[in-house]
């Protein structure tokens, strides 16, 4: 853990790739500036993409809304809006 802290102090990016990572783990790691790779867990159905993303979403707004960039099918940005956490999670379900 001390080596990881030293890397973070130096501005290095750390990434954790482990089996059995929970949403609480993702939230804590994200709060420490550490990325979490959850590919296998999403593919196996142990964790949904929405759950993984939702664990890392943090809002600094008093209303708790999340800044969200809206794009079309060609990934052209249509604008910025503010979404409820539930809306972001639902968008992840629908793709």
User: Can you tell me the residue ranges where pLDDT is under 50 for at least 5 consecutive residues?
Assistant: none
DSSP strand (E) fraction? 15-25%
Order of strands, widest sheet: 1-2
Helix content: 40-55%
Question: Helix-strand pattern, N to C?
Answer: HEHEHHEEH
The assembly state of the depicted protein chains is single chain
Description:
With 95 residues, the protein is of the alpha+beta class. The model has no long low-confidence stretch (mean pLDDT 82). 43% of the residues lie in helices and 22% in strands. Helix 2 (23-31) runs parallel beside helix 4 (49-56) and helix 4 packs antiparallel against helix 5 (85-94). A hairpin with a 5-residue loop joins strand 3 and strand 4 (77-83). The chain has helices at residues 2-9, 23-31, 39-44, 49-56, 85-94; strands at residues 14-17, 34-37, 66-71, 77-83. The longest helix has 10 residues, at 85-94. It has a two-stranded parallel sheet with strand order 1-2. The chain has a two-stranded antiparallel sheet with strand order 3-4.
């Amino acid at each position: 853990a001390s080596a990881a802290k030293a890397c973070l102090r130096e501005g290095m990016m750390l990434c954790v790739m482990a089996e059995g990572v929970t949403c609480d783990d993702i939230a804590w790691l994200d709060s420490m500036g550490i990325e979490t790779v959850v590919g296998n867990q999403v593919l196996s159905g142990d964790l949904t993409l929405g759950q993984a993303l939702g664990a890392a979403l943090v809002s600094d707004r008093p209303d708790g809304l999340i800044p969200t960039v809206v794009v079309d099918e060609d990934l052209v940005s249509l604008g910025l809006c503010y979404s409820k956490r539930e809306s972001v999670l639902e968008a992840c379900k629908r793709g």
